[in-house]
Write a structure and sequence with these properties.
The complex is a heterodimer. Chain A has a two-stranded antiparallel ribbon. Chain A has a two-stranded antiparallel sheet with strand order 2-3. Chain A is built from 14 helices and four strands. In chain A, about 45% of the residues are buried. By secondary structure, chain A is mainly α. Chain A is globular. By secondary structure, chain B is mostly helical. Chain B has a domain at about 25-225. Chain B has a two-stranded antiparallel ribbon. Chain B starts with a helix and ends in a 14-residue tail after the last helix. The chains are: A mainly alpha, B mainly alpha.
């Protein structure tokens, strides 16, 4: 395990990973995080605190979704709140008009967000990557304005009276129960996103991010791969929207401004693009920070902006960077050296 | 009809002015400067502060005062653009494009909310309000002030065009746009020229900001967000990186919006404009006058 991030020449033998590195890459970390998440209401369970915590967990889901697009695939999406809005509105409207439970709207939400992802991604992903950034910015505005102007979305006041979460006739809308259910759903989503990032498709995403031309030359259909990342991000955002609709039982355009998109991006960048634990931690940090720093509300966004610049200049890999490493199984398969040599992987931090 | 065309051209000249800065910076260092719209906002606010400081002169000679303020605000925003480039963009010039884009978003945020800290969250009302004698040309109502503003915009654009095509400085800019490394080898001071490009582009945005403040009368710290998007749309329609194309794109976008607003209603104006952006990117991503650019590896 090389500690630096330059091109690794030979594996450093005799100096194993530090305690902190081992801790940060421990496989028990996810379980620990889940336990903390589930245990939090045992410490503090006022309605206000539960509300904040539920929002934070939904924010984690958003950040993990954006991480697929920005972190894995290196595409800058500045209108991520649009998919959040699409999901929230679709599920809210369907649940209200057809009088079906919220969970039953999930298939429809997935279909609609996939379509939205294709509509935006298909024309722009063929172009230079920076065009995507600004088109998504415009798309975010379009969705917000459309929601503001249409009758079916309730105009500026939005839609309300969305039924709470329930499954198999059991009401799950009690705040504590809803929080626990949200934590479990989001944990699954985080896990799935992380596995997706390590899959064949996930490796293709990272390859496209590192060097698109080389990826294309190696036989990766970069356009399809990028579009799939974009669509995956859209679905994650849409599902977070369903949870959002269930939490507030009301949806209005004011929740889906550029500020929201920028905050999600901030969480991903600060935590470490492409790193699942980093992004989860970044999201929790960004969403709980305003509660801790009430007195500095005016300075908050200014500091966020400056922080984005500083992180990009000083530590572009984020606070908790992703380290690419082979699993023990593939490492054993691909090891060519003499059996006595320690199986340190020769890849540095990506 | 002619009223719609005039409205479109009037708004379009603002878009063109802001879009030029976008396009220049993009043409030279291939960076989408998200903070460009916020420099427009900064121009409006610095103009506001200066008008407040000038006090008495504003009352007696409002148009003259506005012109003086215009020049000073251009200087201020131009220097802000240079500082922005020096602090945020230059250290990352060799970094991946994603890092630069994220930095640009951060810069935009910092400018917006920095202004909010200094000037407050509430909209400000410009002390000078341009409005006045109306002329009727081909059935369109045109105020003298509108003509003056369009005149200033056109004069600035002509000056920019001459600067780029005729001066030594402009030749250096075009050289860097073609190939920064070769330009460096030929003795062009790349850093200095890029800084100057930022100065000129930001100054143009600042001028548009002051003019918008004087014309519409109300400014707030988020006013640069939408105009930045519109300016980018204008640049894409015309052909980003191409100066004449960008000016044309601004006017075309103004006209499109003017007619779109007439047909669909004012609340759909922005949706219509961004719809045009997506349509153009699909059908003709190089813009009306842009040439096909092959990405170099």
């Amino acid at each position: 395990m090389t500690a630096g991030d330059g091109p690794p020449v030979k594996p450093v033998v005799g100096r194993g990973p530090t305690f902190i590195t081992r801790l940060m890459e421990s496989r028990w970390l996810g379980w620990a995080g889940l336990a903390v998440g589930l245990g939090a209401p045992l410490v503090i369970a006022t309605p206000y605190a539960l509300n904040i915590m539920t929002s934070a967990v939904i924010f984690v889901m958003l950040a993990v979704g954006l991480n697929i697009v920005v972190g894995y695939c290196g595409l800058l999406d500045l209108g991520f709140a649009a998919f959040f809005a699409v999901g929230a509105y679709t599920s809210g409207i369907l649940a209200n008009e057809l009088e079906i439970p919220l969970l039953a709207t999930v298939p429809a939400v997935i279909v609609v967000t996939v379509i939205a992802g294709i509509v935006i991604g298909a024309p722009t992903l063929r172009l230079r990557s920076d065009y995507l950034a600004i088109v998504t910015l415009g798309f975010g505005e379009i969705i917000r304005i459309v929601a503001n102007n249409l009758d079916i979305t309730g105009g500026p006041s939005g839609i309300y009276g969305i039924p709470g979460l329930s499954a198999f006739g059991v009401d799950l809308s009690e705040p504590v129960v809803f929080y626990w259910v949200t934590v479990l759903i989001v944990a699954l989503a985080v896990l799935f996103a992380a596995r997706l990032g390590r899959s064949r498709l996930g490796r293709a995403w990272r390859f496209v991010r590192e060097d698109e031309d080389a990826a294309e030359a190696s036989g990766i259909h970069t356009y399809q791969v990028k579009l799939s990342a974009y669509i995956a991000g859209a679905v994650w955002g849409g599902l977070a929207g369903v949870l959002f609709a269930g939490q507030l039982s009301a949806v209005s355009p004011a929740s889906f401004t550029f500020l929201q998109s920028a905050l999600v991006l901030m969480a991903v960048v600060l935590g470490g693009m492409g790193s699942t634990p980093g992004v989860v931690l970044g999201a929790v940090f960004i969403s709980l920070l305003p509660e801790l720093l009430r007195d500095f509300a005016d300075y908050r966004f200014f500091v966020f902006g400056v922080l984005l610049i500083v992180v990009m200049i000083v530590r572009p890999q984020g606070l908790w960077p992703h380290r690419s490493s082979e699993s023990a199984r593939t490492a054993a398969r691909s090891r060519t050296g003499p059996p006595g040599e320690p199986a340190t992987d020769s890849k540095g931090a990506s | 009809m002619s009223q719609l065309i005039w409205n479109g051209l009037f708004v379009g000249s603002f878009y063109a002015l802001v879009a030029l800065g976008y396009s220049m910076v993009y043409g030279i260092i291939k960076l989408l400067n998200f903070a460009h719209g916020d420099l427009y906002m900064l121009g409006a606010f610095s103009g506001f502060a200066m008008l407040g400081a000038m006090g008495g002169l504003v009352k007696s000679q409002s148009l003259l005062a506005l012109f003086i303020v215009l020049l000073l605000a251009m200087l201020t925003t131009g220097l802000s653009g240079v500082v922005l480039e020096r602090v945020a963009y230059r250290p990352l010039r060799r970094a991946p494009r994603l890092a630069l884009l994220i930095t640009a978003v951060g810069a935009s945020f910092a400018l917006e909310y920095g202004t909010r800290i200094v000037a407050g969250a509430n909209p400000k009302v410009y002390p000078v309000r341009l409005g006045g004698t109306t002329l009727h040309v081909f059935g369109a109502r045109i105020t003298v002030q509108q003509l003056a503003l369009v005149g200033v915009a056109v004069a600035l654009m002509v000056a920019l065009h001459l600067l780029i095509t005729r001066s030594r400085q402009g030749r250096a800019m075009r050289a860097i746009a073609l190939d920064p490394r070769a330009a460096l080898l030929m003795g062009v001071d790349v850093d200095k020229v890029i800084a100057r490009t930022f100065f000129i582009g930001s100054a143009l945005a600042g001028a548009a900001g002051v003019m918008a403040g004087g014309y519409y009368g109300k400014i707030d710290f988020l006013m640069g967000f939408i105009i930045g998007l519109k300016a980018f749309t204008a640049a894409v329609i015309g052909g980003i990186g191409n100066m004449q194309g960008t000016m044309l794109g601004g006017l075309v976008l103004g006209l499109l919006e003017s007619f779109g607003t007439h047909w669909l209603g004012g609340e759909w104006r922005d949706v219509f404009a961004f719809g045009c952006l997506i349509l153009f990117l699909t059908v003709r991503p190089t813009g009306l006058l842009g040439e096909r650019v092959t990405e170099r590896v």
